[in-house]
Amino acid sequence: ASIGTNSIRDFTLDECIEQYRKLIKLMVVTFPNTDIVLESVLPWSVENDKIIKFNEYVMQSSEMYKLRYIDLYSKYSVGGLLPSSVSDDGIHLTPSGYDIWYKVLEEDNK
Questions:
Q1: How far apart are the C-alpha atoms of 104 and 82, rounded to whole Å?
Q2: Which DSSP string corresponds to the chain?
Q3: How confident is the model at residue 3 (pLDDT cuts 50, 70, 90)?
Q4: pLDDT tens, residue by residue, 29-79
Q5: Within 13 A of 109's CA, how many CA atoms are on the CB side?
Q6: What is the maximal distance between C-alpha atoms in the chain?
Q7: Closest listed residue to residue 70, CA positions, set 35, 94, 34
Q8: What is the mean pLDDT of residues 79-104?
């Protein structure tokens, strides 16, 4: 099971949260000695209220399970939207968009 941009687009917020809750619980139980990192969902080039609410849940989950959380949303959001400089279609990243992600992960792992 996974959750991400397409899930948030295609399902209700409650359905996404429930799926994510199950996924985190499964990971924590199955891999108790693993450093699990939760990442926020990136913004879209259109309205992002649903993503913002979902990301709040992800952050709360990281606190509840004592997992690391990486806020990618704020690294990409310009005026609350995903800028065209990192995405050709408003959802998927360009190579320069992935460069940002790489740098965020590299910084987090120092």
A1: 16
A2: ---SHHHHHHS-HHHHHHHHHHHHHHHHHH-TTS--EEEPPPP-SS--HHHHHHHHHHHHHHHHHT-EEE-HHHHH-BTTB--TTSBSSSSSBPHHHHHHHHHHHHHHT-
A3: confident
A4: 999 999 999 999 999 988 889 999 999 999 999 999 999 999 999 999 999
A5: 9
A6: 40
A7: 35
A8: 95
